[in-house]
Amino acid sequence: MTDVPNLPEDDGRLLSVRIADDIRHAVLDGSMLPGTRVGQEWLAAKFGASRIPVREALRQLQDEGLVVLAPNRGAWIADVTSQESIEVYKIREALEPLAMAESVPHLSDEDISALEATVARLELVDSVQEYIPLDRAFHLKAYSRAPMPHLLRTIERYWNSTQHFRRWFVKDSLAKDGLPFSDPQHLMLVEMIRARDAEGAASIVRLHIRRTRLLIEKMAPPPKERPKARRRAPPDAADSQASFDADASPHDPFTA
After folding, report:
1. Is the pLDDT of residue 45 over 60?
2. Could you tell me which of 72, 74, 65 has the C-alpha nearest to residue 38?
3. How far, in whole angstroms, is CA 216 from its chain's centroid?
4. Which CATH number fits domain 9-79+230-243: 3.40.50.2300, 1.10.579.10, 1.20.120.530, 1.10.10.10?
5. Which pLDDT tens digit goes with each residue over 205-225?
6. Which distant-in-sequence residues (6+ apart) come within 8 Å of 105 by Cβ?
7. Single pTM value for the model
8. Within 171-197, where are the H helices?
9. What CATH number does the domain located at 82-225 have?
């Protein structure tokens, strides 16, 4: 693993963004699981930085719901309960159709071709590790041309904060039952976008999210049977050094 070169203090803000990006990527790809302790001193040494940009990065991730920060107890990767995830899906059900409707008029032919290519890749995946990032990238790409940056940031935050739960859900539904990962609603959505039918595309997004939410409500165990979101420091949390690769870079399936 290559060490990150020391950066001047003037670049502290840039470095905090880099640290946050790398931790976020490790959370989203599943290499940092809920409860993993995030050592500030280790991060500072790894990035050749003071603790100031490290704290800034962790505060940003806390705002995104990915990290829990507690005074005198440190930082660790956050978790969500099934009930919290259901709440997020209800919020997404309201927000994402709006983003889709606003995005459709501004998506270029190249954007639509990229979405079609991602649907084709989703048809071929046979593992949760492949499906989760592609599915996330497909939806966020579809919304990306909406001229509503605050809405898009909010939607991405909700996707990020429930990534671990989505991974569990897919494993315990599609993968567990041997069902195909492909989803015909993805293809239907692209067809609506290609036809420039903003309302039709929004309706498919709404139904798509609602269907998943109803499945979660049906299959999710009661909150007492699932580990509750950790609000206190986990006593035996995994060491971040063992699970976090500081040289990781976000993978964009649209440019790979």
Report:
1. yes
2. 74
3. 18
4. 1.10.10.10
5. 999 999 989 988 887 554 444
6. 145, 196, 198
7. 0.73
8. 176-177, 184-194
9. 1.20.120.530
